[in-house]
Design goal:
single chain, 487 residues, alpha+beta, Rossmann fold, Dna Ligase, domain 1, 14 helices, ATP-dep_Glu-Cys_Ligase-2, CP_ATPgrasp_2, Circularly permuted ATP-grasp type 2 domain-containing protein, UCP005522
Length: 487
């Protein structure tokens, strides 16, 4: 496909593509699966760019008509947007996926064991593997959950593990999203779009399906529901239409075949949860909640919450209803706790992590803070509680004034930050206004846990649409691609 310096051998659409110094998800050499990648390169090279752009425009119009949008609250000019979709797929070979799947299951298993330990024996704290104040003093640690036995020992029932690939082609974990990860609707809808608008591109490649996600999720939720002697009644609890991920809530409720409800649609009587319907009150056994802990129950968390259900936590504590993800799961979602994940995996499973972390410096520790301050212009620094690319600084791309301002923030509140080296994220061929060019990508596979953990074959590939940008978040201008896992 290319010579060592990135010169492709195509003569059509891909003729000017150069991956540069980065690992390319399509053209860099692999130990296995090279033939399929070569075949896709050739097929892409044979596409007509003008025709392709017309088909993409029609596909994007379809996305908007279907309401497949997300909300950008900080943008006064454009509230609802479609997530920019790039038709050139990201491919994961079968051998690569087998490693990723095993690594994700290992990590999610360790996360659930970690959470179960924190809310019961706290062995990992007593053994000083993880600092006590880091977890027990964490804003997401809820004393309410202490001693509560959750079904199947599962706290994080839906987990999104953010992965990047470095310049050597090694997959690394960038973040753990253990609370209410979003984006799986784009995984499924991107595939639907490819099958509908670009079937000729997919033909013959043996791509694993993603259309079973709704059934996979519903099965896990039914597995954790209390045994009432009848089929479990599952609902999806949404904060409502003004939430940025509301489209996904509608999508998932439809995919699972369950009611979409808001807090006002549920009531607790005698520690039992009921849904209010036109035919009367219907019992609820399991709630897939897409609202934050703080708003779940005004009797336990924020008393001013209008989104939750009064009495829900007492019903939950008595085992009358299951909640996914469990309250208090956010302790494992913390970016400072992330730094300890290799040790957490080793502690509970006696194994080395299959998927390594990105090297991380913890600014709450004197050594980590000193290193970060001394090398601020070379590091990526992130607040531990933020997501979506907010509040972070990319040292190598920051101005002197920005670095000085951030240095002051670090000194004022070091416990709020971690830092990591700037990783040269892998790239993927992407159709831009100037033709096919490399753009940086990451990957968010989704793991669903009930009686066991299952991983959807693929995940959300986010792409930094701006040339040279390493920020892939949709809220920061990123887009997405279909992710092909080959059989």
């Amino acid at each position: 496909m290319e010579q060592s310096q990135g010169t492709p051998q195509g003569g059509g659409l891909m003729a000017r593509y150069r991956r540069g110094e980065f690992f390319c998800e399509l053209t860099s050499p692999r130990a296995a699966g090279q033939e399929a990648l070569q075949a896709l390169f050739s097929r892409l090279d044979g596409l007509d760019e003008e025709t392709l752009r017309r088909r993409i425009a029609a596909a994007e119009e379809e996305l908007y008509d279907l309401g497949i949008t997300f909300t950008v609250y900080s943008d006064k000019d454009a509230i609802d947007r479609i997530l920019p979709f790039d038709v050139l797929p990201r491919v994961i070979t079968a051998p690569e996926w087998s490693v990723l799947e095993a690594g994700i299951i290992q990590r999610v298993t360790a996360i659930n064991l970690f959470l179960d330990d924190l809310y019961h024996d706290q062995r990992i704290v007593a053994d000083k593997v993880v600092p006590a104040d880091l977890v027990l003093g964490n804003a997401n640690y809820h004393a309410f959950m202490k001693g509560l036995k959750v079904p199947c020992g599962a706290y994080s029932h839906v987990c999104g593990i953010d992965l990047i690939r470095d310049q050597e082609g090694l997959f690394r974990v960038l973040e753990d999203n253990a609370r209410t990860p979003s984006g799986v609707s784009y995984v499924v809808e991107n595939r639907n779009l490819m099958l509908q608008c670009f079937p000729d591109l997919m033909e013959g490649f043996g791509v694993r399906s993603v259309d079973n996600y709704g059934l996979m999720l519903r099965q896990a939720l039914e597995e954790i529901a209390p045994d009432t002697g009848s089929e479990p009644k599952v609902v999806l609890l949404s904060p409502g239409i003004f939430n940025s991920a509301y489209f996904e809530h509608v999508f998932l409720a439809r995919e699972m075949g369950v009611p979409l409800v808001e807090g006002r649609d549920l009531v607790v009587e005698d520690d039992r949860v009921f849904m209010l319907t036109t035919a009367g009150r219907s019992p609820v056994d399991c709630i897939y909640r897409r609202i934050d802990d703080a708003f779940l129950d005004p009797k336990v968390f924020r008393p001013d919450s209008m989104l939750g259900v009064p009495g829900l936590m007492e019903a939950y504590r008595k085992g009358a209803v299951s909640i996914a993800n469990a309250p208090g799961t956010g302790v494992a979602d913390d970016k400072a706790v992330y730094a300890y994940m290799p040790r957490i995996v080793k502690y509970y499973l006696g194994e080395d992590a299959i998927l390594p972390n990105v090297e991380t410096f913890i600014c709450r520790e004197a050594e980590g803070l000193k290193y970060t301050l001394d090398n601020l212009d070379q590091l990526v620094v992130k607040p531990v509680g933020e997501s979506g690319g907010y509040g972070m600084i990319l040292g190598p791309k920051a101005t002197r004034a920005e670095l000085d301002e951030f240095r002051a923030k670090l000194k004022a509140d070091p416990a709020n930050y971690i830092s990591q080296p700037m990783i040269g994220l892998s790239v993927c061929p992407t159709l831009t206004a100037k033709g096919v060019e490399p753009r940086h990508v990451d990957l968010r596979p989704f793991a669903v846990t009930g009686a066991k953990t299952r991983v959807l074959a693929g995940g959300l590939t986010r792409v930094a649409m701006k040339e040279g940008s390493l920020v892939v978040n949709s809220s920061q201008g990123g887009g997405s691609k279909d992710t092909w896992v080959l059989e």
